[in-house]
Amino acid sequence: NFMLTQPHSVSESPGKTVTISCTRSSGSIASNYVQWYQQRPGSSPTTVIYEDNQRPSGVPDRFSGSIDSSSNSASLTISGLKTEDEADYYCQSYDTNNPWVFGGGTKLTVL
Amino acid sequence: EMQLLESGGGLGQPGGSLRLSCAAAGFTFSRYGMSWVRQAPGKGLEWVSSISPSGAGRFYGDSVQGRFTISRDNSKNTLSLQMVSLRAEDTAVYYCAVLVGPAQYFDSWGHGTLVTVSS
Questions:
Q1: With an 8 Å Cβ cutoff, is B80 touching chain A?
Q2: What is the sign of the dihedral through the CA atoms of A27, A31, A32 and A37?
Q3: Is residue B108 a contact partner of residue B97, using CB atoms and an 8 Å limit?
């Protein structure tokens, strides 16, 4: 089974840019799509990125996703940070033997 | 707009059983795979189980395999999760979610229902 490892927490100031990483322990990160979910306190998760770099309608273009095969990791980048972006963020991917795997989550604090 | 409403959570005894339901509305339920995802208090998301649009394909996470059974009734737009042999570590908020796209990722989520396993 593979794992997805995320930093426990990140923090940045309003208006700045932050990047959250998600490293796959085995197998190629590029072989299976990566999704990112946002979960604000007390709320259900919502999708902010799907299929590595696609944004659902309604998600601002301040959110972007990318894949880096050299580090076997995916990244979620949020630019022009707003206080409303403060939330937990989870990456998720899969393979044939592990249908749905989540990262441990990253708490984003917008100071 | 996809709408999902979970119910059936509550207090369960260790070794006991509970049945969760998820009522779907706003989309053609029978065309989508569905899933249950749980979140223990203060912890991250954990995939529990998924079912194909027809119900023929059922998948389970290692921690619930053999104890939980997922099912669906496409005539009633309802998803269910029968949980038996409950353990303290099953304590969590249980979300139902719709699976979409080639990646079969979790699109719309319900508000969740809390299951507490304790004597």
A1: no
A2: positive
A3: yes
